[in-house]
Specification:
The chain has 445 residues and is α/β, with parallel strands linked by helices. It folds into 4 domains: 6-138, Rossmann fold (3-Layer(aba) Sandwich); 151-313, P-loop containing nucleotide triphosphate hydrolases (Rossmann fold, 3-Layer(aba) Sandwich); 318-397, Helicase, Ruva Protein, domain 3, CATH 1.10.8; 399-442, Arc Repressor Mutant, subunit A (Orthogonal Bundle), CATH 1.10.10. It is built from 19 helices and 14 strands. A 5-stranded parallel β-sheet has the order 2-1-3-4-5, sandwiched between helices. α3 links the parallel β3 and β4 (83-88). α18 packs across α19. The longest helix is centred in the first third of the chain and has 25 residues, at 114-138. The radius of gyration is 30 Å and the shape is extended. The termini are far apart. The chain binds adenosine-5'-triphosphate. It holds the Pfam family Response_reg. GO terms for molecular function: ATP binding; sequence-specific DNA binding.
């Protein structure tokens, strides 16, 4: 079966679902069945559904068709291109007509005739594919958008523009998810090498045993499993840019080889006896303090000097909250497009709350947070309840200016640090023992 259509059948009668599933799975790529129409939004968020086959009457004893019409409207609102076929057991032409007016593609009567049902759904699936092709043709081309309105990001972008055109090695520093790879792409895009590829290697995601062959390539038979020659990423990036993410993860022996490759502009694949010339511009990224690693003997000092000719520091999101509103709205719109959901507004109240969170995962975390909220949100505008922010921590961050809360926290920290020794804790806090006892009582510590 090569058909790629995904059908979702929703009917509260298990027997109807079983019969439909048995029949239709022989004709369509994937058949999902569901008794509860309330699950439709969740399913639409999780799966790319091509055709909906939807019952008109859900609650037992009701036959007005209103439930079917309600869900039809809901589906069409979430995905204006959705193709929905309605089923009704009552042959109620009025409801069927109303459904067609509301945007249903077709309707079938229960009990259905197998051939008719298959033919109807086949036409519906074709319609879906045509609509998808049309919207792909009219959709704007995907582009990497960089939001960088804050003063600190403006400084970063100036630096990027200044160094992109040179062949200088650049080290991008910043916490996880601050956009290091996006900056590397921008450096490459603005460089004279932009017609050649930028090849990325994430040294944080790769098994250490694979580093060498991944970077420098190998010859057939160089190790068990090397059953053919393989070019390394250095070679693949030749003429272009090599982006080494998480460079702090490179073991010392390979740091030596990397340094040699950069200095001599040549690499030796594993198992080869001859070097290969490579012409790359290196961009490296790290979230580790490489200077400290040098001090501990974990990172070669000469390699650090070699790679940080230019060093670009990306500030964490919590230090550029001016960018948060635009980023949040951008990711909300992106998620709505991706999941074919209606666009959702991000009210100021929500933005204020988001600004209180510390965003340890930075922009990547914000993007996932917005995506989830857009999927979960049931209204036109996002609400605070749509977010799964670990609320305890948000509250702590929100209340850091609360004097009493801070006093309590300090008293607690002092007592913990001095393992309950009241004299020493009082000393550290700069108050008398009696004053500390009073506070311990007040805060019930
Ligand atoms: N300024 C920005 N504007 C818009 N999107 C951004 C921005 N910065 C980062 N992103 C997006 O956030 C996500 C994380 O960015 P990226 O992968 O570049 O971060 P990173 O610092 O390289 O992460 P890691 O340290 O985990 O490798 C990506 O989806 C990226 O497109």
């Amino acid at each position: 079966m090569t058909d790629k259509t995904t059908l979702l059948i929703v009917d509260d009668d298990e027997d109807v679902l079983t019969a439909a599933r048995l029949l239709l799975r022989r004709h369509f790529g994937r058949v999902i069945t569901q008794t509860d129409p309330g699950k439709i939004p969740e399913l639409m968020a999780a799966e790319a559904i091509d055709v909906f086959l939807l019952d008109m009457n859900f609650a037992i004893g009701r036959n007005s068709g209103k439930e079917g019409l309600h869900w039809l409207g809901d589906i069409r609102q979430r995905d204006p291109n959705a193709v929905v076929v309605l089923m009704t057991a009552f042959g109620d032409l009025n409801t069927a007509v109303a459904a067609m007016r509301e945007g249903a593609t077709d309707f079938v009567l229960k009990p259905w005739q197998n051939d008719r049902l298959i033919a109807t759904l086949r036409v519906a699936a074709d319609l879906r594919h045509t609509r998808a092709q049309l919207s792909a043709l009219t959709a704007p081309p995907p582009e990497e958008t960089m939001i960088a309105g804050s003063a600190s990001m403006q400084r970063v972008m100036k630096m990027v523009e200044r160094v992109a055109g040179t062949d200088a090695t650049v080290l991008i520093r910043g916490e996880n998810g601050t956009g290091k790879e996006l900056i590397a792409q921008e450096l490459h895009r603005l460089s004279a090498r932009s017609d050649a590829p930028m090849v990325s290697v994430d040294l944080g995601a790769l098994a250490e045993s694979l580093f060498e062959s991944e970077l420098f390539g190998h010859r057939r038979g160089a190790f068990t499993g090397a059953d053919s020659d393989r070019a390394g990423r250095f070679q693949a990036a030749s003429g272009g840019t090599l982006f080494l993410d998480e460079i702090g993860n490179l073991p010392l022996a390979l740091q030596t080889k990397l340094l040699r490759a950069l200095e001599n502009r040549e690499v030796t694949p594993l198992g080869a006896d001859q070097e290969i010339d490579v012409d790359i511009r290196l961009i490296a990224a790290t979230n580790q303090p490489l200077e400290d690693m040098v001090a501990r003997g974990e990172f070669r000092e000469d390699l650090l000097y070699r790679i940080n000719t230019i060093s670009i520091e990306l500030p964490p999101l919590r230090e550029r909250l001016e960018d948060l509103p635009e980023l949040a709205r951008f990711f909300a719109a992106q998620a709505a497009r991706r999941y074919r959901l209606p666009a959702k507004e991000v009210p100021a109240k929500v933005l204020q709350r988001l600004a209180q969170w510390s965003w340890p995962g930075n922009i990547r975390e914000l993007s996932h947070t917005m995506e989830r909220a857009v999927i979960m949100g049931e209204r036109d505008a996002l609400a605070i309840e749509d977010f799964d922010l670990k609320s305890r921590q948000v509250d702590a961050a929100a209340e850091t200016l609360n004097l009493e809360e801070n006093e309590r926290r300090l008293v607690q920290t002092a007592l913990q640090r001095y393992e309950g020794n009241v004299s020493r804790a009082a000393d550290a806090l700069g108050i008398t023992r009696a004053a500390l006892y009073r506070r311990m009582e007040k805060f019930d510590l």
